[in-house]
Amino acid sequence: MIIEQQHYRTVWYNKDTNTVSMINQIKLPFELEIVHFNTYQDTAEAIRNMTVRGAGAIGATAGFAMAQAFVSHKEEKEWTQARLFIEATRPTAVNLFYASEKVYNAGLESVAKALEMAQAIADEDAEACRAIGQHGNTVINDKCRILTHCNAGWLAFVDYGSALSPVYAAKDAGKEPFVYIDETRPRGQGARLTAFELHHNAVEHRIIADNAAAHYMSKGQINMVITGADRITATGDVANKIGTLEKAILARAFDIPFYVAAPFSTIDFNTEHGEQIIIEERDEEELLYHEGPNEEGIMQSIRMASPGSHGLNPAFDITPNHYITAFITEKGIIKPNELKSFKQK
Ligand code: MRU
User: Fold this and answer.
1) Are 215 and 309 members of one domain?
2) What is the pLDDT of residues 243-299, one digit of tens each?
3) Catalytic hit among 230, 237, 268, 317
4) Mutate-to-test residue for ligand 1 from 11, 92, 151, 265, highest number of ligand atoms within 8 A of CB
5) Contacting residues for 69 by C-beta, under 8 A, at least 6 apart
6) Is pTM, for the whole model, over 0.90?
7) CATH at residue 66
8) Which among 85, 107, 129 is the end of a domain?
9) Same domain for 101 and 205?
């Protein structure tokens, strides 16, 4: 991703210093800050507190954190402890477990193999997302009006993104896509991160309230929905940011195609059905307070809910496979019931 003439990945690793560096997504869109972590514990904490977030990005980060543990610790029990520590950060996105397991197994052979594997996972993530863009572009017509939820752009991966990669590819192909961005309460990944990305890529867009999509669909102003995914089961049920299910039901009601864009690393072939997925419950403060910079640019939190009331804050919901038109993957556009047959390809 290019921001002001400079190419950035969301997260990267420096072998010389055993440091993981990343864009601090808590400060976006107000400040572009790069932060560096020297221990696997600090890198894991960055996943937990959402300095880095989004399925592919936390997968790559978990892989790098696991590699950091192999570089700085010598005993197998410390590596196992590190893996458990990293995997305890966030439960829903499967990429995190995919990466920690692969780097762990590689590290049991040698530290060099752990480093190689962590880098390969990050590079494969970027390449898969690039290919998702090429395949997704084929379903986007000129002047297509697309609704997206949350942020499944390059900030949610190592580069390119999943749901936004087809939008970028369509734009590069000379089309003029228009994107409606759900603000995505409670943390506002749509209003903050997706809007930041599209603004910097000169893609025309508007942020809409989370409850405005039906209005625009009913007026025929949305041609398709593209979301990302945090975990896809073998049968094609999808865990994604809270509110995705609602959009899928709406899309069905208005006969609008509903696409889910994701790399194969997000498919959990060991899980058959959506109800088996653990849904992360996050702190109620994310719901009850809004965060933003004051006039001096210092981040502030203000309460916007009635004092004394508590909230509930599930981070994800499950969209059953029958609402999904198709998956946009690096292997092509695939119907939910075809996923299993693509596993080996
Ligand atoms: O809680 P987050 O921000 O890590 O949630 C992940 C997401 O951004 C979305 O669910 C996204 O659509 C899938 S991740 C590519």
Assistant:
1) yes
2) 999 999 999 999 999 999 999 999 999 999 999 999 999 999 999 999 889 988 888
3) 230
4) 151
5) 40, 78, 79, 82, 83, 86, 107
6) yes
7) 1.20.120.420
8) 129
9) no
